[in-house]
Every structure is written in structure tokens, then in C-alpha cells.
Please model this.
Amino acid sequence: MGLLEIAMDLLAELREKFPKVVLEVLEKDALTIVCRREGSLELISYLKEKGFKHLIDLCGVDYQGYKSEKKPERFEVVYHLYNLDEKKLIRVKVLIPENDAWQYSVTGLWKTANWFERECYDMLGIVFKGHPDLRRLLMPEDWEGYPLRKDYPLFLTEENEWKGYKEFLASVRGAK
Amino acid sequence: MSLYVEVIKNGNGKGEPEHFTINMGPHHPSTHGVLRLVLELDGETIVKCDPRIGYLHRGVEKLAEHLNYNQTIVLSDRLDYIASAANNIAFCLAFEKLLGITPPRRARLIRTIVNEMARISSHLLWLATHALDIGAMTVFLYCFRDREWLLSIFEKVCGARLTHSYVRVGGVRLDFTQEIIDELRRFTEEFPQRILDYETLIDVNRIWLKRTRDVAVVDAETAINLGLTGPVLRGSGVPYDVRKFRPYDAYDEVEFEVPVGERGDTYDRYKVRMKELRQSNWIIKQCLDKLKEVEGEPVLAEEAPDLLLPSRVREPEPKPHPKKGFVFTGKELPVVPPGEAFASIESPKGELAVYVVSDGGPNPWRLRIRTPSFVHISAIPELAKGHMIADLVAIIGTLDVVLGDCDR
Model:
């Protein structure tokens, strides 16, 4: 039996409740719901009420230059939710446009989303509205650019090197 | 305690208690690596705690986008370097889902054994350092003795003690020899007695009880909300174990129990891990018995891409790519079909999930790693509130964090 049939009731319910939010339902390795940003927070909180209480993962994906499939927007924020009682996994993808890269924060629903969202902001520059403490997490506070974006190089040239490192080098050279 | 104390007085001069901001780490032995905690203290009580991470950030997710699938396995070793076999398995499961490969049964059994060996060695290291942090020196020495035994078995299996890179897409690199199987059998026979030894040392030890009972209590609801997984979640009474909920490898054919705690405090989490050691030992025993049934069968799937087998002869590349060092055999067919896959395993520390997106090229388009330590560290502020500084050491220990796993 396919994943779609198993989750038939849930999908029908979602389609009925959020006709404008749900864009597509895909059957991949997990049940995937592609949805619009407006109303995505309501959809996710509805899923949480339905028993998808465990937020396994929250991450962003940059699709700039993705060749094998036409993507409507550059960014996607991907949620992996798990239902502990019914043992079901669901993936929610929210489309985020490039020029207006922000998404509603789910920190109100899960405390664990706090750091996931901070990391997503740090790495891809997606701002989370309603986040209590949106700072850089892994990179230094004064870092410029968002490393996991596709247009960010793997190696920086010397001029574009991090300011802190340049200052450090200058101080070492000055000491000699 | 030799804390580097940065004294900033936040007192308002109106007779209200002065709060001190103290910096714990990154070079502090009890933070298990390079974790820095900015603490706001009222006397010795923690009012606020702000973990700062990223000192070990190597950009594994970015690097993986510039390496091919098989090369990323080497990166996975460096995440949770205490149990690198578990990381290898998580990566390989995700790639296998993308490729649509199922490893042969013998490989699945070997992987299960290796995963449980990693769990035992990780739990032993956890017990050793946790006990040392709290003040029990003897346990540390015993645990390291037994961990050494396991590491030497690992060395016989794949030649490496810590960074194995043993598990491959579609199976494992090498088959178990009879010598390894005999050695493992000896280990599984003797190990239950060793667990008893540790327990006699600390189970009813008064100092141990005082330091762990009712420290960092989390109830089930909060634990799920905080995203805690693994033994930490099970200590709060939630029987969530990926090995039972979404079985991978050979976990659906072995029997084991999922131990849970009641109170959700540090002592319960200790008990859960000790019970898990016994379960892991039992799983290894069962798998060794089952290995006899598949004697002489291959340990790498036939349909595994050719680049994964270094011993096979490669066809000459007609059009070598000037930039990429590694070339694929002949065809221009995509090695990995475009799409996405999500795989998660029960690593010793908690749930380790890998989400991989492919565009059909030789490198992953996006490789997202959800590591248990990252989530557990994010829960420290919640758990540490209202506790003493000395308890913070117990809390870091009980969460079992590895900073390589956290920073990626």
C-alpha cells in the first residue's frame, strides 16, 4: 500500500481545511506536503494537534541553479514531523521566495525549533518572524554572507576573508 | 573549580541581588570539548544560561556539496567521533534510499553488530567521563579498559580505532573473519559481568545518588517539546526508539527491549543507559548466531555503484573532468537519481537524521544532518535553570554531548 492511501484521511482533511495553502502532495520516501508560506504556520500547528508532536528536523534548502526539476522559488524550508502514536513521518516543505526570504517561526509550538531556526538563518539567511532571539549560531557574530547559499564559494579569496581573521593576522604581524 | 571568571556586575545598587556573568569554557574539561556557556549567576544558582557553539564548526554540510557521495562518509566519521560507525550507517542508509539499494543480509547483520559495538563504546565513554565529572575516578579506569577491548576489535574489523569509514553504500567494506567473531563472542560472554562491576561501584553510592537524583528533571511532554531523543527521552518515560519505530538494517529480526525511566532525572538516564548496554550485548549475541546462516554470502550489494568498490577495475574515462579529482566509470548516466531521501537511526546519543537532496549529479545537492548533540545542547538553558554550577557539570554529562557532533 502506498503512502498516499495510508494517509488518505489526513490529506483530505488538510485539503479541506487549507485549500489555499497546500499546493501539492507527493509520495516520495515520506509523505511530502508542499505548501505556500501564508498559512503554513496554521497548517503545521494543525498537524501538531493531530499528533505530529515530534519535530525531528527543520532545515532550509537553496535551489538556485537546480537543474533536474523546475523549482518555483529559490528557497525551501523543510520540516520533518513524526507522529509517535501512529508511527507516521510527514515532510512539510514551505516555499520561500528569494527577494523576500522569511518564514513564520514555529518556536511557539516547539522549543527545539529555536536553534534549528537560528542555524537556518545563519546558514541561508532566511529570517524567521516571531523568533525570540535570532542571532548567528555557528558562525561568528560579525560574519558576512550566508555560507550554505549556492552562490557562496567554498573557499574565500583573501580580500573577502572574515574581518576577525584579518585583524588577528594584523595583530600577529604587528607583534613581530 | 578553575573557572575563567569574567566579572561584570549587573547589580542595580538597590539591595537586589547582584548577578554575575561567568564564562564557562570553551577550554573547560567538564564541557566535553569546546562548549562555551555564558552563565548569569545569583550566588551559585544559575539564573540564565546561554550556550555558544561553533568552535568546532567545520562546515560539513557545505563540504559535502563539493564531494561525491562516497567521500562524504569520511566526513561523517568526524561528526560523533566516539561512535563513528553509527554516523556511517546513517549516511549510507540515506544514500541507499536514494539509489534504491538494499544491502545483502550478511551486510545488514554486520552493520547491526557494528552499530551496537559503537553504542557500547560510546556509553562506556559516557559513563567514564560522567562519573569522572561527578567525582568517581575508579569507574573511569574500568570503563576505558573495556572500551579499549572494543576498539581493538574495531581495529581488527577495519584497521581503524575511531574513524572507521567501514560502512559503505550498499553494505560494508570487509567481511568479518572468524577471529573477529570469536573475539566478539568472548566479549559478549564477559561483558555482562563487567556491567555488574560498574553498577556495584556506583548504583547505591551515596555521593552518586546525591549528585544525580532529582537533577535536571524533565517530564515527557517537555522532553518531546525540547526535541530530546535517545536515552535522555527514554529516561523521561517515552519509549521512542528509532530501532523499534522505523527499523533499519537487521533490527526487525532481533529481539530487544527498550528500557525507560520513571522520574526523568539524571539518575534515571544513567539507569536507562546501563540497561541499554545489556540490550546491545544481547543484540550482538543474536546477530553473531544469525551470521552462521549467511556464511560466505557477499557483504556488498551487487547493484552498488562501481565507484564504491575500489578493488574493481575501472574503465578508462572517455572525457575526464578537469576539476573533479574522482572520475566515474564511463557512462554519462546519473549515478544517483534526482530526488530526496530522509533516513534516521538511533545513534548512541539520540536520533541522528540525514536528509539528502540530489540533482542527479555526482555530489549531493544538499546534505542536512540533524545531530542529537546539537538539540541536546540547545536544551541546556531549560534544564540548568535554578540549579547550582556544580550540577551543570552533571547536566552536560547526562545529556552525553560531543561537540564535533553538535557543530558539524
Summary: Chain A touches chain B through 35 residues (CB under 8 Å). The first helix of chain A runs from residue 3 to 6.
